[in-house]
Write a structure and sequence with these properties.
- It contains 5 helices and 5 strands, in the order ααβαααββββ.
- It is an alpha+beta fold and 151 residues long.
- Strands 1-2-3-4-5 form a 5-stranded mixed β-sheet, covered by helices on one side.
Length: 151
Amino acid sequence: MKRASRSVCVAGALVLLLGGCDALSTDKTPERIRNGTSQLDLTVTGRPTPGSLSVTEHVLARLRARDAEGLAELAGEGDRADEDAKRWLARWGDAARRPATADFGLGEKDASVEVRFAGDRSTLTLLLTPKDQDDPYADRYVVALHEDPVT
């Protein structure tokens, strides 16, 4: 009888221990800190949707972090996304470390965002297109990196 109760206690302790380890290893860092968007000094004008604002923040965070691979992942399908992302980093990587203003234009399906960085005369224009062409009003976007980003 003692042996059986000891086994139950040991099994119970193992369950609690393993369950506790899982709770301790779960990353509770807010998403905005993990993806770098909390560090942006961004002023927003116009009327962004949650989806258009989110992808714009992610583009700016990837530029700021000089993360070509992450920027390419935000692009629409295309075989030149990596090359285009590197080109954008070369042009906008330093500017993205400064305060920025994003002006969101009105758009029903597609959205355009004019980004101005402090101390830079040029404007970065983001063309956002629906991520899912079958559901263009789902408020999920990709950025067209193949477009000329300077105006």
